[in-house]
Amino acid sequence: MATSTSIPLSEYLQTSYRPDCDYIDGEVKERNSGEQPHGHIQAIIASIFRENRKAWSTRAITETRVQTRPTRFRIPDICILRSSDPHDPIIRFAPYICIEVLSKDDTLMEIQIRTDEYRAMGVDHIWVVDPWLRIGYIASARGFEHPADGIFTVPGTPIRLVLADLFAELDED
């Protein structure tokens, strides 16, 4: 179960946590630790973006601090950045895509708060993957919606993640 501890922002920024923790208005909050389905689907998605990085002009980064507000740092499971985005240690700009992979103990309310923060900072594409139920959601101002065709896309680009293919690969091993 996730717990929290109060510390100053400067201490959070100078501390390494294993696994890394969110920082929410003075509270260091542990994230739900993933089990194999969580880590496996995360690796599958990151590898797809890695394989297509040149064609899609993107970089996939896993579990990196993203400053969503002046006193809030989130650790998305996967951030997709544009190739031209800065290589700073902490992401302080809106990633191209944020992807959250649900752990067994995650709640949609917690994920809604996270995705609302990403949207408020300007992230246009926010995807949520549930490796337990084998479903995906697009998080938008309307809430969570299943992609109608079962495919995560970024309109006007060749970026495509076919959920059935992701889950088939997850089931192979």
Can you tell me about this structure?
It contains five helices and 13 strands. The protein is α+β, with helices and mostly antiparallel strands. It has a single domain, classed as tt1808, chain A (Alpha-Beta Complex), CATH 3.90.1570.10. It has a six-stranded mixed sheet, sandwiched between helices. A five-stranded antiparallel sheet has the order 1-3-2-6-5, covered by helices on one side. α2 (36-51) crosses α5. It is globular, with a radius of gyration of 16 Å. The model has no long low-confidence stretch (mean pLDDT 93).
Keywords for this entry:
173 residues, five-stranded antiparallel sheet, tt1808, chain A, six-stranded mixed sheet, 28% helix, globular, 5 helices, alpha+beta
Give me the side-by-side strand order of the main sheet.
Answer: 4-7-8-9-10-11
- Low-pLDDT stretches: none
Total strands: the figure is 13
Strand content: 25-35%
> What is the overall silhouette?
globular
What structural class is derived from the secondary structure elements? alpha+beta
Rg estimate, integer Å: 16 Å
Number of helices: 5
CATH architecture: Alpha-Beta Complex
Main sheet attributes: strand count, strand direction, barrel closure = 6 strands, mixed
Give the termini separation.
28 Å
Indicate the percent of residues in helices.
25-40%
